[in-house]
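so my prof wants the structure for this chain in the tokens format not the other one, which i didnt know existed until like an hour ago. anyway here's the sequence
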Amino acid sequence: MEFDHDFTKSLPKIELHAHLTGSVTRECLHDIWLARSKGHLDEFLEDPLDVLKVDECQYDVVSFFPLFTSYIYKLVNTLSSLVYSTNAVLNDFSGDGVCYLELRTTPRISPHFTKEQYIETVLDCISRHNKSQDAMHTYLILSIDRRDTAAEATSTIDLAIKHQDRGIVGVDLCGDPSHPLDLDMLHHEFSRAKRAGLKLTLHFAETPHSASRAELEGLLSMDPDRLGHVIHVPEDIKDAIAARSTGLELCLSCNILAKLTTGGFKEHHFREWNSKTGKMVVVLCTDDVGVFASQLSNEYYLAAKHFGLQADDLLDMCDAASTVIFGGQYEKARIKQKIAVYRTRRNVS
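here's what i got, hopefully its the right format
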């Protein structure tokens, strides 16, 4: 490997799998906790610096989801804390050299805001950030949680379609992979979104619980534009995915630290997908940088370190990632121009 973290930070990177709340750092949460502890917390919550231990990630797929429902959602549950945390996430990604970002979030309700107020506030933050600089452009994806009722799923798609002209570019399926799916309901809602012009990405085969043949074939029948994680996939379905022009959102640190994969980095399925012949495009992503404390620049560094990638390989990955973004042709051209300029300046071809 011929470079260091400074190089991977300077790369014009594309982030396509970043959960908004999961991308809020413990330091940002601490700031919110300090401000709200002066009489404005709805209930007692411990200091985030004590809850989220940066040097000992203690979250697996079982303990990960309760971290949000029992803690982070209760801390970030006012419009002011939502604005503060969203702005911090945008600045963190921009500061890490990301030139294009698609954040995703599930519309949620609190004692202090409705689902629509939540989405409108996030979109306001994104709009202000996009207008304030040109280094990074950000768009939003709305997620249906696996635990959502049919009415909740319908509400999410309604919001995505209603606010599409404000920068919502796609919809997602996320949530606890142990929870069963209503495939018929999801097919109906995602079809509705796609008819409205929205793109579709799905958390796919994240754990053995969410990797039954019925689920995987059912999800692929929804014609997704991208797939996230793609870990526990049978060989014939791997071949079917490889034959599609599908973006694969792979998250190294998250998968390893949350014990979604075994064998460490060397055995991560990135190696197989990145070397597999096909039309699919592999994209490195962070997932939940606030929990797993690995920025996108570090994910690129880890990929180079553990899979023998060189500088031109990483630039090629950035270039390829631009082909599966949801932001449209203008953004694709903008990113390709940034990468071309970067190649010239770095003299990397």
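also thought this was worth mentioning. The chain has a mean pLDDT of 94.
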